[in-house]
Amino acid sequence: MKTLFKQREALLSILIVVMTLAVATITADFISLANLVIVYNDTAILIILALGQMLVIITRCIDLSVAANLAFTAMVVSMLNSQFPEIPVVFLLIIGALLGMCLGMINGLLVWKLGIPAIVVTLGTMSIYRGAVFLLSDGKWVNAHEMSESFIDIPRYVLLGLPLMAWLSILMIAVMYYFSRYQRTGREIFAAGNSPVAAFYCGMDVGKLQFKAFTISGLLAGLCGYLWASRYAVAYVDVAAGFELQVIAACVIGGISIMGGVGTVLGCVLGALFLGVINNALPVIGISPFWQMAISGAVIVIAVVVNTRAEQGHTRIILKKATLKAA
Amino acid sequence: MVFKKVMASSLLAAAVMTASLAHAADVRVGLVVKALGIGFFEAANKGAQEAAKELGDVEVIYTGPTSTTAEGQIEVINSLIAQKVDAIAVSANDTDALVPILKKAQKRGIKVISWDSGVGKAGRQIHLNPSSNPLIGEMNIKLADVAAKAAGGGKADIAILSATPTSTNQNIWIDEMKKVLPNYANLNLVATVYGDDLADKSYRETIGLLKSHPNLKVIVAPTSVGIVAAAQAVKDQGKIGKVFVTGLGLPSELAGHVKSGAVKSFAIWNPIDLGYAATMISYNLVKGKATASEVSMGRIGTAKLDADGNAAMAEPFIYDASNVDEFAEIF
What we know:
The complex is a heterodimer.
Chain A: H1 2-26, H2 33-58, H3 66-83, H4 89-113, H5 118-137, H6 149-153, E1 158-159, E2 162-163, H7 164-182, H8 184-194, H9 196-201, H10 206-232, H11 243-253, H12 265-285, H13 289-326
Chain B: H1 2-21, E1 27-32, H2 39-55, E2 58-63, H3 70-82, E3 87-90, H4 99-107, E4 111-115, E5 126-129, H5 133-150, E6 156-162, H6 168-180, E7 187-194, H7 199-212, E8 216-221, H8 224-236, E9 244-247, H9 251-260, E10 265-268, H10 271-286, E11 294-296, E12 302-304, E13 310-312, E14 317-320, H11 324-328
């Protein structure tokens, strides 16, 4: 089983490298170190959101509200910054993360305590959070000149060749890797998603684990709220509209099973990077915008097909082992 | 909300009182906006008051609902009819919903025009558009020319950053831009890309443009999300002074980017002029000074009317470092 996933991730890595090289044959500059940094930095927000989404999907749920959560926290931190520029950016980052966490907890509580399917809960909260941005801002934008210099500059500060935003995403990857492999809660989340019944008999509260996954997803979305507002130096109601689909797509491409229980941090990051490379390559190679949509769509469908096929194999292997042992 | 309503009704009451006090005014124009408290319309009112001052015998009653609803506007228009104003100039929240009440107003001899956001033909005599598609297209190319000269002059590659490939008004503007492009021999359009009115995609497309076209001097973005994202991308790539972003956007959204130097100048309608022109047209209608084909807009010029009574005020107004801060306060 392990080798299968190792193969899958190796395949995805090769695909990303091949794609990058193919684009480089059209514009050689694409594989320059400077450009690779741009591409990675551009994908940093997607990676962070996908890490949170991964946990939620592993518990057999889905979080459609991440982009709306991001938009809400982006608006709150931007408005705070424009009204009180003296608040240090670190505090804004923490405020954003905590606020996002609260929004995630609302999702989690509804799923856990009321037992409503996650897709319904987050479809609802997606609209509620998005609507809340409008109520908060009255439809007005927070613009570049209303933000403080440090608010815009800090994620762009280059440390050892990489902007701070890219470093933050690397830190998140490391934390999530440790959490999902060596932390009790992290392991339990996998168990709860893989077989909720078995997890229940082992004494785990599956609902509570789902709640925890939503909380983490919300926290990361809140963190990205600040990053997004700073990166594009603007906050408005439609910030990151439809971005939740990219986040879910990154997870699916990265081999996180929509049926729950299966997935790795590495796969998730590779899935996000795959989309990141496509997103950055398409404008450079000058394909018609209609083809761009078709290509992005086709990639996702192919990933799902590959995924389901891999999962079929994976069930069979378990059964084989079981029969062997029985015999 | 309650506070707003109280404010609105006391404003209305104040308007009624001043109206009954100011008998000197011969012509009373009700300027109905989408909602009170919006910077854009406050600015339009400023222009309307300027027109009233210039004409002398006009009183402008600036009014509107507290939220952008057609029902709210119907209420406001009803009260204007009761006050027996001479003209109503409305920026409508709904094209069709206001037609019946405006028909009623016209039956009572009130002249009705719409401006900014129009109502159905049956509900008004004239509709004043802030600008027209050909004027917008031409203005974008004019701005590109100014930016190209700022970027060093000579032959310049330019690119267009649009919203979605299916956006109707964007495509019409781009067509109009291409029509006037041959008049500018120095400008060479190398690409048209689409940012889908998403900040992240527009940003990425801009970086793509900078990479694929090293000689690019100007990016024209006739869309407010696009122009902001492009300006930020140009700044982040350290291309300020080499590549200029221009197009259509609001002063408040672009003030920071004008300051950073990523945007030299850009355009959008001037709300002050719009309020001024709407008042002038209303006045001339009341005074019987309008013909079926044209009507004067005072200092702005003469509006040409088409068969449906549509008129275009002027080409979009140019904003740059000299005036952007002043207008950023307004809208």
